[in-house]
Structures are given as structure tokens and as C-alpha cells.
């Protein structure tokens, strides 16, 4: 059965707030915006992916049994969790003024005790233990046994309505409009805390809509095959872009769920929707499944072969998220391959053969850009005085190797482009192949610019996304495309 832990806060119960009824506070969704049960389940999956198969079996025995099994295998560090700072500061003021504070949560007792110890605010703890899930009316009964019928309760969801109904005052934390109205019908409100609404802007950030520009690579074969006047090819290409965007966003959600602890330790990534707790794991999971359905539905509409390439992309991305991103160089090689798969998928979507020249050029180019991304992250860590990245086997000192390797890849991409220009295949396909030599200095300038931006700590995003946002990069790439088209179509008689 549930029981109160020994006193955790030692502030004397005297002061202006001592006469107020005890304030009982929920944990999940209230003190912290996250669900510690879902966080524990994710932590177990990170430790042992196959353990995910055991979660439904434990759940069949009840939520309390599931929490017991997870608590026995996973330790959540409360210092790594996001906390609602305004509420925590309010509780600290109440405690300092002599009010009795009690933590009452459906989370497992081990999690609740660790959270209470970390915060140092509470005089006691009520939590799920010994097979009893402390939620709803069961929580109300436990609170009444501990403090009597006069108490204020801080909660966040519809599940807290029975507790509010039995309380003398309500503290509402980021509740929905309907929950707020129902709570106010039964209990006077003492205080309310509200987060910024999570709307379309929040979803756009969580799905990384800005990263969809990378899927323009699916349309590259339209240019290289000179099929840009074929309406059917354009339609298939655009649907293929939609499919890749949906599947990519689903993969970003999975990656962010698996990366939550490491993102919270990162100076910039800790603000991501899942790491900060603004987006819950369950809504993210539902969105992920919906996006996968949309993506593969669109993929099958293009062709079965394209859907197969899309499945390959998904498997590669999941392998990267689960394991490969933790290994030096394997992660950047995988990133380069993921960029290249988009071009391969575009070839399959519009039904043109994949050029070996384009394949070779893509691998060197995207390996270079993947190294730009990794070097930019390590340079940012170096500026903060840190020596290693969290969750990846990279150290700042690795820049001495990664930097020249990236520049060498840029040179190799330019060399492949030069060899392509001299090939008999190019002579046969282009009206003015000599014009293509103008693309080589353009490519060298663009890639050199990317590395200079990285060295100046101005590369804050994915390099492909950065290229779309950077004016100099856009102008250079546009010049290369213009030269490419002119070399194909320019009348021979002018030269």
C-alpha cells in the first residue's frame, strides 16, 4: 500500500503561509511537463531495444505492475528532467513561508522519492507502490489519510478532477479549457500556471518542417535526365517528395525520443520539443505512426519500386538513430548515404537509370556536407569549453582529423565533376560540354564557403538546409544549374 515517506524538507512550519491548508502537488505533467512512465519505457528501449516487446505483457498485469518492472530496470535522473520553473519557485516561496507541501503522484515511489530529494521542497511523498496505482480516487483517499480533508491540490489533467473535487482549493497547471471549467465548478482556484500554447509552430518544430528542403534532392534526376518538361515526371517527383517528407518527419520524432537524455545535455538541442517536455511521448508516437502511413501510402502511389527505396531509407534512418550515430565516422557515412538515397529514389520515381557519375559525385559531396555538420557541432562544443559530445563517440580533438577529411572530400567531389565533363558520355549528351567547366570553380567556391562558415561558427543547421537559407550558396547553386542547362541546350553554332 502507499505510504508517506519520511520528511524530506526541514523548513519549520511557521510563517505567513503556515495557516493555509497543505498544498499537495502532482509530479507528471505538473511539476515536470514529461510523463515519467513514458520516459522510463523509452530509457528501457534505449538500453535494450528488444525489451519493448515485454512492455505490453507487463501492462496486461496493470499499470502498477508495469511501473514496478520499469523501476527495477531503469533509473531516471531527476537532474536531467525539465521542471516547470515558475511552479517550482512558487512552491519554494510557500515552503519558506511555512506551508506544508506534499508530493502525491501516480509515478513509482522510486521516481517520486528521487524527484522530491532533488527539489528539496516537500515534507512527505505519496506514490505508487506495492501494486497500488496512486491515481484518481485512490490518490484522493491517500491524501485524506495523510493530511485530512482540508488541502489544496496542484494538478494538470482530467485524471486530477476527482482529487480537485475533494480539495478545498485548486492550483491549475497548464490545463485544457474543458478541464479548467470542470475543475472550477467544484473547487475554488488558488493559483494557475499556463505554458505557451503548443500549436502549429510547435508541431512544425517537432516535425522539423524546415528540413523538408533536403527532399528537393529527390528532384535532382529530373534535371540530370532533362525531364523537367515532362508533367508526369514532375507529378511523380512531387509525390515522392511528399512521401520522403512524411517518413523523414516520423524518423525525426523517433530519433528525438531516443535522444532525449543526450539532447537535454546539449546547449542547443535541449530546447527541442520532446527534450523540453513541450511535446509528450504519446502524442509524438501517434504522430509518427500517422506520418508513416501517409508516407508509404504516397510511396505506393508512385510505384512499388519507389516504396521499396523508401523502406530502405526508413531502415537506414532507424539503424542510424538506434546505433550507428554513436560510432565515429560510421555516422557521417550513413548521413551521406541517406542524402544519396534521396537521389536514387528520385531516379526510381521518374523511371530513369541512375548515372554512376551522379552516384559517385553524390557520395563525395554528401560525405563532405555530413562532415561539415559534425565539425560545426564539435566547434560549438569547443567554444563552450567542453571536450566531448553527449551520446556520440566524438571529441573536440577529432577536429584535427575530421576537418582535413571534409575538405579532401570537397576536392574529390570537384575531381569527379571534372572527370564527368571529360567523359565520352558527356560529349554525347551536351551540346556545349566545355561550358560545364565553369561549374567546377562554382562548386569549389560553394564548398569552400561552407567550410569557412563552419570555421567561423556560423553553421547552425544542417548544411543542406543552410545552403537554402544562405544567399551566397543559393546564388552559386543557381549559377551551376544555369550553366548545366545552357551546356545542354545552347546552340552549337555559337561556339
Structural account:
- The longest helix is centred in the middle third of the chain and has 28 residues.
- The protein contains 22 helices and six strands.
- It is elongated.
- Strand 4, helix 7 and strand 5 form a beta-alpha-beta unit.
- Helix 15 runs antiparallel to helix 16 and helix 18 packs antiparallel against helix 20.
- 41% of the residues are buried.
- The protein has 495 residues and is α/β, with parallel strands linked by helices.
- The protein has a six-stranded parallel sheet with strand order 3-2-1-4-5-6, with helices on both faces.
Please outline what is shown here:
With 495 residues, this protein is α/β, with parallel strands linked by helices. The chain has 22 helices and six strands.
Task: Detail the poorly predicted runs.
Answer: 1-7
Task: Please state the overall shape, judged from the principal axes of the Cα atoms.
Answer: elongated
How many distinct beta strands?
6
The spatial strand order of the largest sheet comes to 3-2-1-4-5-6
Q: Tally the helices: what do you get?
A: 22
Topology pattern, helix = H, strand = E: EHHHHEHEHEHEHEHHHHHHHHHHHHHH
- What about the largest sheet? 6 strands, parallel
Rg calculated over all Cα atoms? 28 Å
Q: What separation lies between the terminal Cα atoms? A: 91 Å
The class by helix and strand makeup works out as alpha/beta
Beta content comes to: 5-15%
Average pLDDT metric: 89
- Please estimate the helix content: 55-70%
Amino acid at each position: 500500500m502507499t505510504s508517506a515517506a519520511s520528511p524530506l524538507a526541514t523548513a519549520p512550519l511557521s510563517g505567513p503561509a503556515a495557516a493555509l491548508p497543505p498544498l499537495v502537488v502532482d509530479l507528471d505533467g505538473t511539476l515536470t511537463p514529461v510523463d515519467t512512465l513514458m520516459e522510463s519505457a523509452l530509457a528501457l528501449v534505449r538500453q535494450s531495444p528488444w525489451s519493448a516487446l515485454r512492455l505490453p505483457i507487463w501492462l496486461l498485469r496493470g499499470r502498477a505492475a508495469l511501473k514496478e518492472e520499469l523501476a527495477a530496470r531503469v533509473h531516471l535522473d531527476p537532474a536531467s528532467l525539465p521542471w516547470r520553473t515558475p511552479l517550482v519557485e512558487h512552491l519554494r516561496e510557500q515552503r519558506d513561508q511555512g506551508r506544508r507541501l506534499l508530493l502525491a503522484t501516480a509515478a513509482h515511489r522510486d521516481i517520486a522519492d528521487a524527484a522530491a530529494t532533488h527539489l528539496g521542497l516537500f515534507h512527505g511523498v505519496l506514490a505508487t507502490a506495492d501494486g497500488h496505482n496512486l491515481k484518481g480516487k485512490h490518490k484522493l483517499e491517500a491524501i485524506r489519510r495523510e493530511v485530512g480533508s482540508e488541502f489544496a491540490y496542484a494538478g494538470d489533467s482530467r485524471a486530477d478532477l476527482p482529487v480537485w473535487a475533494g480539495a478545498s482549493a485548486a492550483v491549475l497547471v497548464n490545463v485544457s479549457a474543458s478541464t479548467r471549467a470542470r475543475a472550477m465548478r467544484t473547487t475554488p482556484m488558488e493559483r494557475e500556471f499556463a505554458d505557451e500554447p503548443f500549436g502549429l509552430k510547435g508541431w512544425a518544430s517537432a516535425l522539423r518542417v524546415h528540413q523538408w528542403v533536403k527532399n528537393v534532392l529527390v528532384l535532382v534526376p529530373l534535371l540530370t535526365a532533362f525531364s523537367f518538361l515532362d508533367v508526369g515526371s514532375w507529378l511523380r517527383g512531387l509525390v515522392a517528395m511528399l512521401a520522403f517528407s512524411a517518413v523523414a518527419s516520423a524518423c525525426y520524432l523517433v530519433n528525438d525520443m531516443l535522444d532525449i537524455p543526450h539532447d537535454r545535455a546539449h546547449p542547443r538541442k535541449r530546447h527541442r520539443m520532446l527534450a523540453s517536455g513541450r511535446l509528450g511521448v504519446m502524442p509524438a508516437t501517434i504522430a509518427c505512426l500517422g506520418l508513416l502511413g501517409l508516407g508509404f501510402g504516397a510511396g505506393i502511389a508512385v510505384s512499388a519500386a519507389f516504396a521499396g527505396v523508401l523502406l530502405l531509407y526508413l531502415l537506414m534512418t532507424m539503424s542510424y538513430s538506434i546505433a550507428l550515430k554513436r560510432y565515429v565516422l560510421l555516422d557521417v557515412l550513413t548521413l551521406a548515404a541517406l542524402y544519396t538515397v534521396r537521389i536514387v529514389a528520385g531516379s526510381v520515381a521518374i523511371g530513369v537509370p541512375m548515372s554512376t557519375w551522379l552516384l559517385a559525385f553524390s557520395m563525395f559531396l554528401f560525405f563532405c556536407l555530413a562532415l561539415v555538420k559534425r565539425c560545426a557541432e564539435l566547434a560549438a562544443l569547443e567554444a563552450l569549453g567542453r571536450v566531448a559530445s553527449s551520446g556520440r563517440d566524438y571529441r573536440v580533438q577529432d577536429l584535427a582529423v575530421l576537418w582535413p577529411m571534409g575538405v579532401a572530400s570537397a576536392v574529390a567531389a570537384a575531381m569527379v565533376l571534372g572527370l564527368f565533363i571529360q567523359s565520352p558520355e558527356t560529349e554525347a549528351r551536351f551540346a556545349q560540354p566545355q561550358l560545364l567547366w565553369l561549374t567546377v570553380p562554382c562548386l569549389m567556391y560553394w564548398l569552400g564557403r561552407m567550410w569557412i562558415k563552419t570555421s567561423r561558427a556560423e553553421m547552425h543547421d544542417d548544411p543542406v538546409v543552410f545552403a537554402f537559407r544562405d544567399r551566397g550558396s543559393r546564388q552559386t547553386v543557381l549559377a551551376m544549374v544555369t550553366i548545366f542547362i545552357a551546356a545542354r541546350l545552347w546552340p552549337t553554332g555559337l561556339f
